[in-house]
């Protein structure tokens, strides 16, 4: 038997958000607020950067101190904008990754600064061809620099990079990175969307992941591992599901991930298009309130 949940970390795309949607469903929004009212700390854990995450949570009535684990763990802030944690990738490593990975797909680096130049890439047309919705949503933050290495002089350290392309090419990119001298200087995290033949390889400082950030956050909050729940649907969620004492895999996750969930004893939620997060939170809230009673 698991103890009542005190902290829950929830992925955004494919988990909180319905498929192809940019708005959290009404039932899920109510469940997030109800969880906070019941005393559960709700953290959002996403590969998105903070500026691409916070607007989706506006108007839900969530607390200003709601933690946002963004850029796959590289940056942690509250919804109100207070900085909690942050780490960087060395610029020299980022330059090396440009040369290694540009042949596989569109390479993007993210900086922790507001406005244009927060996202830097060298081929806007290539990125638009693979991730058009992302490009349009982030156009005001994108700066084009050719070659990309010129945006990465010593001292200009990004928080995260990514390369995106087809499923097959990103698996090749992942293998190329693992076989390169840069492997020791970079964490490589895969996210896949098979229905769109779209994959993203996130490039992070060594050791950084959603799980790493969640462990550090729980320690700051004085919450035990067994009292922590994590909910996700993709490969970049695996680390946090492994660390949390209560892992939950979404029903819309790939078969390979759902099989992994069964082997590791994680629960399975209904799919994101069936309010899966709300179903899980409502059960957690009931357990918390029963324990208090």
Order of helices and strands: EHEEEEHEEHHEEHEEHEHEHEH
Considering DSSP H and I runs of 4 or more, what fraction of the residues is helical? 25-40%
Using the CA coordinates, give the radius of gyration: 19 Å
Specify the number of helices.
9
Average pLDDT for all residues: 95
Distance between the termini: 18 Å
Q: Please indicate the percent range of residues in DSSP E strands (runs of 2 or more).
A: 15-25%
Helix- and strand-based class? alpha/beta
Low-confidence stretches: none
Tell me the major beta sheet.
8 strands, mixed
Strand order of the largest sheet: 5-4-3-2-1-12-13-14
Tell me the number of strands. Answer: 14
Quick one: overall form?
globular
Short description:
The protein is an alpha/beta fold and about 290 residues long. It is built from 9 helices and 14 strands. The strands form 2 sheets. It has an 8-stranded mixed beta sheet with strand order 5-4-3-2-1-12-13-14. A 6-stranded mixed beta sheet has the order 8-7-6-9-11-10.
